[in-house]
């Protein structure tokens, strides 16, 4: 049986990711690697991806290779730049869950709103979006990264997912008139999209597209 490894930093997203993966690849084994200590460590380092953190991210890719996986997928946007740095040390494709979404967003208009819920994700997500736009030959697009204040705390400190999703929806509706496409950058934001179908502006999420990219490696 073919295998894929997901590398996560938040335990709460794993059940939903397992379900989404099973819908697309029911005959492929999914292995989840969780490091829920890496985000606190990045926070302690002022948001910086230190050499030790980059090495840890690389080690997870190497572990996936040892499992016999066809590919590994990083589910965390905060450590996405570390995946790019780690790829040369990993003998299988080491992908990012938001990669296909960001590339598609770059082709859908000149003004992109990149919504995030965590301040720590702000810089890495902006970097990833800009890199994706340049890859698509769209380096001139406007990318505005917008923090949905209170959403991260609602989900991770208060356990209130409904409030988390509501805050995302409210922010998306607030800014939609100024942009050609709204990007819900983090995998944890995916459920909010269902309340934005009438927005009149395309709303992109990462999970389905990010998993679908695995087809070329399986």
Automatic annotation (TrEMBL):
Pfam families membership: Asp_Glu_race (PF01177)
InterPro entries: Asp/Glu/hydantoin_racemase (IPR015942), Iso_Racemase_Enz_sf (IPR053714)
Signal peptide coordinates: none
Gene Ontology MF: a single term: amino-acid racemase activity
Family: Belongs to the HyuE racemase family.
Name of the protein described by the UniProt record: Hydantoin racemase
């Amino acid at each position: 049986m073919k295998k894929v490894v997901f590398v996560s930093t938040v335990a709460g997203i794993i059940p939903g990711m397992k379900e989404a993966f099973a819908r697309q690849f029911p005959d492929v084994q999914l292995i989840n690697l969780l490091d829920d200590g890496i985000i606190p460590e990045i926070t302690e380092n002022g948001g910086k991806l230190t050499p030790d953190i980059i090495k840890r991210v690389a080690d997870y890719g190497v572990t996936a290779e040892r499992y016999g996986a066809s590919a590994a997928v990083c589910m965390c946007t905060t450590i996405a730049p570390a995946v790019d740095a780690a790829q040369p040390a990993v003998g299988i494709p080491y992908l990012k869950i938001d990669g296909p979404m960001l590339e598609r967003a770059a082709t859908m208009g000149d003004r992109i709103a990149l919504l995030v819920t965590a301040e720590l994700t702000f810089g890495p997500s902006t970097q990833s979006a800009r890199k994706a736009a340049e890859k698509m030959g769209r380096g001139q697009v406007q990318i505005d990264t917008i923090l949905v204040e209170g959403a991260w705390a609602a989900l991770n400190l208060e356990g209130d997912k409904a409030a988390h999703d509501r805050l995302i929806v409210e922010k998306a509706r607030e800014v939609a008139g100024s942009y050609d496409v709204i990007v819900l950058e983090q995998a944890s934001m995916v459920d909010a999209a269902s309340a934005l179908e009438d927005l009149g502006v395309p709303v992109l999420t990462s999970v389905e597209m990010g998993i679908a990219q695995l087809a070329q490696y399986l």
